[in-house]
């Protein structure tokens, strides 16, 4: 999709609001005439393109993620009015979607239609519970999103970009006013994250407005340092540079600082109102909300009890595989003693200082580079987008997850990023390095997401659909795929692979335990410590994340099990005709999909090969 075409589309949509009634009626008649002359495939393509355009220019931040700079000076609108408009728009789109005659569509178009339909239905199902979602939590919310977005997404290649950066700083006050409004809506219906979550949000918020120019510190705050660095690389006069720096400093002091102070005050008040307990069972209609979350993240109809049972079964399976590793390395002791050995032996950890952190990043990059060389043997689809490994920034590393991935810009201006959280090197054992790099980088998230962005012949919306069981299931699947590719030659690294799979199996147990079976935070933490080799701090941060994002943690293992099931079934059905590269193409070629549609795709592929 060309930027010029998109820009014209936006200009046209803005002009629509100023048309008089006669012009609008004439255009509508012309549109109907044009639509009548189109084939069903053309009508569907136009429908998808128009809907994606609407979604795109309703979200300045999504535009920036994709590399477009139309509303480069704005944040997303999260007001209640805007959310209501989005819901009404989804209802209209879903109604229109039912008008297409599937008998006149290709197989690929039928998949696209089904994906769009289920995406809209999921959006509307969520709308019933939209105020149950924590608008703020310690794991990932607006207090850390603002600096992270400006630092990692907002590129500054000219003066206009720098001025847009300043404008975004000036609008933080408005954005946070909307956040506070949403917090108060939730307060009225009794939706609060747990008390301990507020402590972390408050500390992280204070971190953002610490350092110059917010105080007399010699150290610059993260945003101020980022803006100065970006502006220093521009070709401009000293006077122009001073004007930009002065403008950013003023915006930081008159918009960003008071916005954070207002948010801090609101969070302080709400902390005292939060009811005791950790899971969503403590919220009004919490059981219905959790069922919604499981359906959303797993794309199945699995109940909490069934998910819990699957988790327990896989924990036992992986424990047995780990005992085999113990025999290989001739460890004398039981599994829990082996866990303690893996947690505490210094051979598995880099020094907890900058030397150790640098060494970790170097090794992680080397693992990714080695994997790249093997990809053609297992994949026909290989992304063009580059990927880098980066340390999580200091302002958010204390509350951020162990590792995560950020997609590249569609135009190639920003690479994909595998973030490693190196705040405490004791949480990042070397025996997990391989599996972690393969999951977050290649052939995991970077392969899947970059390929999806670069796919041709499918609607734009399809490239950015959200089906967590598919995306995270793929990431976990590739950890085991790497073993098939000949990696994990060190038995301790193979143990690390199993440890990470075990972690995802335990997630099924603790997530349902917390939100359905009323487990406490401490009970869930103890389950992880007793059943995995991960350090205690790792377990604490993980459980706090699962509490903040109910249901999300269940998607990984449920998705991976389905992909493995489909691969093994395909092998059995096709025998010598099975081609792993063709299987991966079938899985990846339509972008993210629900697990039931993935199963349909694989079965149709097997039938076609037969």
From TrEMBL:
Pfam families from the UniProt entry: DUF885 (PF05960)
Q: Which residues form the signal peptide?
A: 1-23
Tell me which UniProt keywords the record has, alphabetically: Signal
Q: Domain of life of the organism in this record?
A: Bacteria
- Record protein name field: DUF885 domain-containing protein
Query: What's the source species for this entry?
Result: Paraglaciecola mesophila
């Amino acid at each position: 999709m060309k930027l010029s075409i998109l820009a014209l589309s936006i200009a046209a949509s803005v002009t629509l609001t100023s048309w008089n009634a006669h012009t609008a009626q004439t255009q509508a008649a012309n549109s109907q005439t044009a639509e009548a002359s189109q084939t069903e495939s053309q009508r569907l393509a136009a429908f998808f393109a128009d809907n994606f355009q609407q979604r795109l220019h309703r979200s300045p931040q999504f535009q920036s993620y994709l590399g477009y700079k139309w509303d480069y000076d704005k944040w997303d609108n999260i007001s209640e009015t805007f959310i209501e408009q989005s819901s009404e728009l989804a209802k209209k789109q879903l109604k229109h979607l039912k008008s297409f005659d599937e008998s006149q569509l290709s197989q690929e178009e039928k998949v696209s239609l089904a994906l769009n339909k289920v995406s809209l239905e999921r959006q509307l199902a969520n709308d019933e519970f939209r105020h149950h979602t924590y608008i703020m939590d310690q794991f990932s919310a607006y207090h850390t999103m603002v600096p992270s977005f400006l630092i990692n997404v907002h590129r500054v290649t000219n003066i206009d970009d720098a001025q847009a950066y300043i404008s975004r700083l000036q609008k933080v006050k408005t954005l946070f006013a909307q956040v506070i409004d949403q917090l108060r809506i939730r307060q009225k219906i009794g939706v609060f994250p747990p008390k301990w979550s507020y402590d972390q949000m408050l500390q992280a918020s204070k971190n953002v407005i610490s350092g110059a120019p917010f105080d007399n510190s010699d150290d610059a705050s993260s945003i101020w340092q980022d803006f100065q660095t970006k502006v220093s690389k521009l070709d401009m006069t000293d006077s122009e540079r001073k004007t930009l720096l002065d403008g950013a400093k003023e915006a930081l002091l008159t918009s960003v600082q008071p916005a954070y102070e207002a948010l801090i005050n609101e969070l302080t008040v709400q902390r005292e109102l939060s009811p005791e307990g950790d899971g969503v069972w403590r919220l009004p209609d919490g059981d219905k909300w959790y069922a919604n979350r499981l359906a959303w993240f797993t794309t199945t109809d699995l109940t909490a009890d069934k998910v819990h049972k699957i988790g327990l079964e896989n924990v036992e399976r992986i424990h047995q595989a780990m005992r085999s590793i113990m025999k290989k390395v001739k460890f004398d002791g039981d599994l829990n003693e082996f866990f303690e050995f893996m947690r505490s032996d210094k051979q598995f950890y880099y020094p907890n200082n900058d030397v150790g952190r640098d060494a970790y990043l170097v090794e992680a990059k080397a693992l990714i580079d080695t994997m790249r060389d093997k990809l053609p043997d297992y994949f026909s689809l290989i992304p063009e987008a580059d990927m880098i490994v980066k340390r999580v920034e200091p302002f958010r590393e204390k509350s951020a997850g162990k590792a995560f991935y950020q997609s590249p810009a569609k135009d190639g201006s920003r690479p994909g990023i595998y973030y490693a959280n190196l705040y405490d090197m004791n949480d990042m054992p070397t025996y997990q390095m391989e599996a972690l790099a393969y999951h977050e980088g290649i052939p995991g998230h970077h392969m899947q997401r970059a390929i999806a962005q670069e796919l041709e012949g499918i609607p734009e919306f399809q490239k950015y659909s959200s089906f967590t069981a598919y995306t995270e299931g793929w990431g976990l699947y590739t950890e085991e795929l790497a073993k098939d590719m000949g990696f994990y030659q060190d038995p301790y690294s193979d143990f690390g692979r199993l440890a990470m799979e075990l972690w995802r199996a335990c997630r099924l147990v603790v997530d349902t335990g917390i939100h359905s079976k009323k487990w406490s935070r401490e009970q869930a933490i103890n389950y992880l410590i007793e059943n995995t080799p991960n350090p205690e701090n790792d377990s604490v941060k993980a459980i706090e994340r699962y509490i903040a994002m109910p249901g999300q943690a269940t998607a990984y293992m449920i998705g991976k099990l389905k992909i493995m099931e489909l691969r093994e079934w395909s092998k059995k059905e096709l025998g010598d005709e099975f081609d792993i590269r063709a299987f991966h193409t079938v899985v990846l070629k339509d972008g993210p999909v629900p697990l039931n549609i993935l199963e349909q795709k694989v079965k149709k592929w097997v039938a076609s090969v037969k």
